[in-house]
Amino acid sequence: MNTFPLLGTIVFLPLMGAFGALACRKNDLLCRRLSLAVMLTDLILVLSLFALAPQTADIPGTWLRVEDFSWMASLGVRFTLALDGISLILILLTTGLGAIAVLVSWNEITDHVSPFHFFLLSMMTGVLGVFLAMDVFLFYLFWELQAIPMFFLIGVWGHGNRIYATVKFALFTISGSLVMLLALLGLHLLHAHQSGETTFALHRLMQTSFTQPVELIFFAAFVLAFAIKIPLIPVHTWLPDAHTEAPTAGSVILAGLLLKTGVYALLRIAVPLFPHAAQTLSPLLLVLGLTGMFYAGWIALAQEDLKRLVAYSSISHMGLIVVGLAVWNVTTLSGSILQMINHGITTSALFILIGMLDERLHTRKLSELGGLWKTIPLWSGFFLFFSLASLGLPGLNNFIGEVLILVGTFTQRPGLAAVGFLGLLWTVIYSLRMLRESLWGEAENRPDIADLTRRELTILIPLCLGVFWLGLHPGPTLNIIGTALAGLDVTPELLAHTP
Predict the structure, then answer these.
(1) Is the full-model pTM beyond 0.85?
(2) Is residue 370 domain-resident?
(3) Domain count, the chain
(4) pLDDT digit string, tens, across residues 304-341
(5) Residue 55 falls within a domain, yes or no?
């Protein structure tokens, strides 16, 4: 236990900043500056947590920090936050992308600036809470909190057919969450009946005994909610519409963070609670992951809207991450977690670059692009760089994660590893098509447009450095992940070290 609630401060600082932004509704510049200062402060607090990692480097599965407080004692709900290496790198990604989301909205969002930043910052609290909560009821509250602001970000500040995209996102998300809530309450009551203990603590609920049918039903209910958020085929159709109509900051948070909460929840919540059901249904997860790689890659190849193409690319990449999770050994899990970070960086960068291009040309259609390398070479260089990282060029970040997943899969299921490798070929094909049609060729009747500004370079350079760091020197990150994953090769022993 720690006297100062640092984790709680990290989680709720964005929410406090959100109310501060709401109070600045008459001064847009002050609102933007306050929001950026809050996210940068939160980022600094997260970076300070890395000082804890060396202290437990030789103690596999040990929590770096735990904060546990009584909350709703009569219901068995506690305010429990815990940090390990997996949570640490994910909250680092969250605060980093949160600051970037504020920066990319600096010129794009001109109407209702104060409410926009209120929803953006409050969503950060939801995401951070998901990555740190160790009480399942608390986890559910944060799970809902991260989704609600996105409804408004798309519905109010989105583009084109934004109401349709918002309603679709809401229907999918709410349906999955309600099913999970019913299973959570059923699990809580079953545990109370067996033990006489009223609790939502994850490590306590892991001790619940099930018959096989009941465990399968509960696991399926949790997986449905998480699969929608990832998203897995066939509950993926909300994502391309949401990405297409969302403002740039919304796409950054969707691709970089919200999709990752689904994979994290499978790893941290669903599999530890229902390990036998997870083992039984792991072939289904494998099939769905591989299907997503091929299907989404095929659909991406046919897209004419640049943003929609990257959205389907995102589904394909998430499919490979789920494959690593379904195989469930230290190598594939390390690759999947690293790939969550890699995907969060590269795909967010691509959405940011597309947003910058849309601000200049007011179009995302590939048929109306072409010749960008001649007109905006700096933008084109960054777009080429992040596209090559996304397709897995050796030396850049995605390559390491993909290799770990495929190698770890090959040790147990060589045939599926071969299929997964073939699925990566789709990434190369649609990425090269995207680059050919946007960067090269001739620009027809296009007026002169400005290249990247200093603010835009400030956004892109840190993402570029992250790609190089994880591609050329992934060891420190993998060591943090590996220490947290120790003992997860067969059963989820990591969470036995809960507070």
Answers:
(1) yes
(2) yes
(3) 1
(4) 999 999 999 999 999 999 999 999 888 999 999 999 99
(5) no
